[in-house]
Predict the 3D structure of the following.
Amino acid sequence: MSVEAFNVTSDDPTRRAPLVLGDHDFESITDTVCGVVEKPKPPVAWYIAFTISSLFALLFFVLLAYLFGVGIGVWGVQNPVGWGFAIVNFVFWVGIGHAGTLISAILFLFRQKWRTGINRAAEAMTIFAVICALIFPAIHIGRWWMPYYMIPYPNQMGMWPNFRSPLLWDVFAVGTYFTVSLVFWYMGMIPDLASLRDRAQTRTRQVIYGILAVGWRGSQRHWHRYERAYLLLAALATPLVLSVHSVVSMDFAVSILPGWHTTIFPPYFVAGAIFSGFAMVATLLIPARQWFGLKDFITLRHLENMAKIILATGSIVGYAYSVEFFMAWYSGSAIEQFTFLNRSLGPYMWAYWIMVFCNVVVPQAFWIKRIRCNVWLMWCLCILVNVGMWFERFVIVVSSLANDFLPSSWDYYTPTFVDLGMLAGSFGIFFSLFLLFCRYLPMIAIAEVKRTMPQADPHYHSAAIGVED
Amino acid sequence: MEQLANPDQREEKRNLDDGRTWFSTPAAWVGLILLGGGGAVAFFSEDRLQRFLQSYLFAYTFFLTLALGALFFVLISHLTRAGWSVTLRRLAEDLAVCLWLSALLFVPIILGLGHLYEWARPEIVANDALLQEKEAYLNVPFFILRWVFYFTVWIGLAHYFYRLSGQQDETGDPALTLRMERLSAPGMLLFSLTITFASFDLLMSLDAHWFSTIFGVYFFSGMVASFFALLALLVIVIQRFGILEQSVTVEHLHDLGKLTFGFIVFWAYIAFSQYMLIWYANLPEETGWYERRQEGAWMWASLVLLVGHFFVPFLFLMSKHIKRRKGLLAAGACWVLLMHAFDLYWIIMPQKHFGEAGRIPFHPFDVVCMAGFALLFFAAGRDAMRRRCLIPQRDPRLAEALAFENES
């Protein structure tokens, strides 16, 4: 069976699609992936993208300086909407950060071998998204020089953080998630960093990658330890994928505010996070596989699988919207009922319907195979999903606060240019970091991809020459 | 004509070798007599009818969830195009078609609606403003209509997969797999919506004032965890009779153990989310439900549920060595099934209109109903299983399942 002749997106149940296309052997995979990093210059598109995103990152820092200089009055937050863009952005970015660990941990435990093509980039994306996320609560506290107050440590003032506050649980949940994701990502990268070290042409590269590769020699013992650690980390990271966004959802759900307090929030937030995370992975990898010539490893099949996960998780999100709506009516509570009518027909109805359209209607297009296999159409739909998931958090945070129990305190929330600029700027930071990652680190888990190839089967060579085993 | 992937496995026994239909088995008759006799005793002593129906609902829900769990497994196997589970899928198909029995046994619940659900009693609704508001949903005709719809969906799906998979045994046509995969996605959508509303109708509306958006997920998590336990147990039992000794290996049991473990943790996560959010917000319209489960003896029951449904199986099933030993895994599976039944008991029994608060109302009816249902479902399950080979022997991915091994 020739690999070229085989349609990778075929649904034929009698065979499994190959995960690596082209005439690749182990050496050519290393050459292709390391080649991205070793080329003297990246493609022109990289320069253009990096210029734009770093300008936005710069914008973020300029606005940050302005914010620090003047105070959070420069934001649109007011009374009663005390949680504005900063919290919306925080939840949005934490959500984006879910796909990486889902792919590397949960799909690993489910033996989904196609994850090997995308896990490295997705994990990197996770780290960068969580970095973006962590900035917002840190500056939202207003006294940005005091975020260390959130960490419980014995001090002479005898002051402790409020352990009953879910905002503090966030510090632990997101902090743990960031640490474990970083360790997972870095540990998985060690064999590939060693490859880069061994192939280095300059002394500088050799030293830097050498330090990063922490003495990896590829001995059998190294591999044995590595795989044990990988399995253990996967098992530890799996509950984290669920716990982080569950805790984030509790920021809202432990309150008594209608629209925030509902029991389905934890699993619903997790599904939404995976949904948006996968959409972001696709948004990043569709151009990246094109620019860096990685289409043999991130095949159409990989993208189709991601489209299916987006459809599945988007449907779970749609399920949660419907159950919430139904239960608001079923509860018989006038305030619950008002909240949901207000969301869908009140002053923020534009945001609500953008959310429903992007999160529930748009992914339904992925029922159609031709759309799942149309790369650039999929890319556009994934961007819409990202837009929708940002609006979901906007609807939750703002509409519930703006119209609460007491009509006399209602107000309409309007973001300022600082809010908008910081949102755009956080995308700048995120894309800049991701582009740097593409340029300096191996974008594909070389060793893991090799393991999924037919050549990795110990019987491959004996089968090729017709020896019975 | 049998195409076996591995020539060594030709000798394996893959059929029940049993000619009896479900109604010609003693189990079915004893089961019917138990339920009928219990019902008759209750009916002729008017005050006990409600108590009998509570037990009936308890046993009914237990077996309904197991059959639905089987349907879920069939759907998810096709949806994910799973290879490892092919040799287990037929057993799930056979258990899922038992849903016809659930449909049949639903009739007594409809007849006894007024005894079980306050919203079905006009004299109570007339004095309850909240129930009047919910009347558009909680009323007898719409309830029956919904359940007709749920059963149409469930039985329709179960039979579709049962039938096509059986056809494939004869023709070996891979296109049938493709057809089943195509239906599995919309099937899953329908499944998730129907079980959600079924859980609201059957269990949540027992306390018609109370509401919780996560309730459908809670129902689902317990259902799936206990189904995986049941499947592991079923495999271990039939293997003792020399059936499927080779095509289902310790690797499959290991995976069933992992899935049981995983869904036990998922159940705990969902149960915790529901409890924690209600406890923390402390709103009277929500806390009542838990308060009744923390009064008197129910407090102990709640703690048993916490320890028994989560900590014990969590610690027990964590080890790979336990999951790979049949006797230990079977013990774990029995425990999980027991705890699932206890969970349903804990949901159903402490209702205000069911009697005194703070007392666990054990009654011989509980055992009678459980035994009656168990025997009926045993007969129905065996009837589905005896009709054909116990693995989909010409499934295009059979070879994958036969050769499957866990790494490390």
